[in-house]
Structure formats: C-alpha cells, structure tokens
Amino acid sequence: MISKLITVELREVWKNEAKDFTTWLGNNLDYLKEQLGIELTLVEIEKSVGSFYVDVLAQDDSGHLAIIENQLGKTDHDHLGKVLTYLTNLEAKTAIWISPDPRPEHVSVINYLNQISPEDIRFYLIKVSAFKIDSSLPAPLFTIIAGPGNELRDIGKIKNDLSDKDKKRFEFFSQLLNYSNSKTNLFSNVSPVGYQNWVTAGAGKSGLYWVYSVWLNKSNVHLYFGSSDAQKNKERFDKLLNNKTVIENEFGNSLEWDYKEGRQQHYIKTISNGGLNNEANWETIQKDMVVRMIKLEKVLGKYLKEIE
To answer: Which has the closest alpha carbon to 122: 145, 99, 146, 98?
Structure first.
C-alpha cells in the first residue's frame, strides 16, 4: 500500500519566522549539511551586525564563517541586501539564503554572484518545503535552487597561496604537533592545517574528539562531544559532569564545562594563555597545551571507556 505525500504550509510548522523557524534552523543545521555537503556548526542565532541581525551565524568545515538568511515568504530585495551586508561585514565565506518561493530574478543574481566571486566565496539559494505522509509529523525538505558550480573542494589541501593568517596557523600547528608527538601518540595520525583554528583526533568512540585549538590571543585543549545525535552528546556530557568534582581534583585545576541547552555540540575545556599573536611565546604555549592534553586524556579517558 502506498501513501500520499501531503504538502504542509510552512506557517503550520513554524508560526513565527524569527522565533520559530530561525531558532529551529540554527539548532538543526544537519538538514542543510545533507544538501550542501558542508559541515555547519552553529556559532550564534540572531548575531548582531551593526544595527542588523543575521538570522544564523555558523562555521563551515573549513573553519570559515557562514551566514544564513531565512524567510517564510518570497525572496525580496531587502533580504538580498542583508545577505550581501552580512557576508561582507562578517568576512564570511558562505552565504545561504532560504525561502519557500525563490523569485527567478534572485536565482539569476545568486548564479551571477557565484560566477564573479573569488573561488572561496559561495552563495546558495535554497527552497524550503514541508511534507507529511497521512497523519505523520511534518518533515522539512531543502532543495538547492542556485549554488556554486564546484561544491566539492579539497579543503584539506595546503595551497601555496595561503593567506598570512593561514600560514601562521599552519606553522603553529606544525610546531605543536611535532612536540605533541614526542610526548604522546594521541595526534600521531593528524596533519597540521592552516585553514582552521583547530586540529582533532578521535577519542576512542564515534562522535568524541580530542582538540587542540588556537586563536589570536588564546588557545585551549578540550574534549569535543560532536556526535550527530544531540541526545547522545547530552547523555555523555552529563555522565562526565556527574563526576565533575572528582575529575577536576584529579586534573588538578578547574575545567570549563561548556554546555548550552538546545546546542548539539558540547565541550570540556582547559584554557591556555596566549595564541597566534604571541609568536615569541609559541614554544611555551605549545608545551603547556601538550601537558594539558596529556592530563585531560589521562583523567577523562577512564570515564570515556564506560560511556555508550
């Protein structure tokens, strides 16, 4: 027996564009990942850009910012202007515009922008629909209407024309991993990168990762709960949090238990002083990060063996 696919009005699913659709979208970016082939991690919902607010600010799989502008009506010039304003002012690399009714003239604009923009800038215009089968819950469908011609890029390749910042990150991670590999084998299969602010290594179970990260003026070492199953991330985080006092006593210092309700990913962090801008102190910063990583893995490792 075959059922009929029923179209659902978007306002029946999300009554309010800002409060309902934008919030849901920010916390369910995996739906876009399935269509775009880009890993998107939420940074902030309703991010301030001067006197404006970008609906969703995310980070893509290359470590660059992605802005998402959504609406529950036809595409219009106002939202097109916002897309360009947010992309420019936040120096993002990806712009995603979502609407249930993309106008042909705006499809042409997005195609044109992809033709004239640098290779690392991407514009997408995506149609959103909702369907259900019989009395089932509604399910969203995202369809790419316009996008860059080459969506699969080798972001892992270190290019000769890396920006100065990318070169500095690459050099930092090269030095860090060399020292780390002399003290522990946790990152022995990891290569340095210049296109993002972190390097990761598996923590023994799917969805769990050890992470070294560095920014302009700070760096940190952390355990990343990054499963695609948000409930599993929460359950794993909570089991370790239940042992917070014992864990911190064994570690010898307090840790940052970075949990946020409604966010899919969570972190247990230990912060190091200094970052990319403190080039004269890189050796000290890197040694401190490795010491912290070894201690963190030693303390948390035994708890990780006991969780699902």
So the answer is: 146
Q: Which of 68, 27, 71, 73 is nearest to 47 (CA)?
A: 68
Contact in structure between 184 and 290 (CB atoms under 8 Å):
yes
Q: What is the pLDDT of residues 242-267, one digit of tens each?
A: 999 999 999 999 999 999 888 888 99
The neighbouring-strand residues paired with 268 are 223, 257
Looking at residue 74, what DSSP letter applies?
Answer: B
Task: Please tell me what DSSP assigns to residue 148.
Answer: -
Place of tokens 């990054």: 226
Q: Six-digit token pair at 56?
A: 């969703």
**Beta carbons of 96 and 69 less than 8 angstroms apart:** yes
Going by their DSSP bridges, the two strands 122-133 and 94-99 should be labelled as parallel
Distances (CA, A) of 209 to 123, 206, 293: 30, 8, 12
Confidence band for 138, pLDDT divided at 50, 70 and 90: confident
How many residues would you count in the chain? 308
| Of residues 85, 84, 37, 38, the one with CA closest to residue 60 | 38
How far, in Å, CA of 89 to CA of 81, rounded?
12
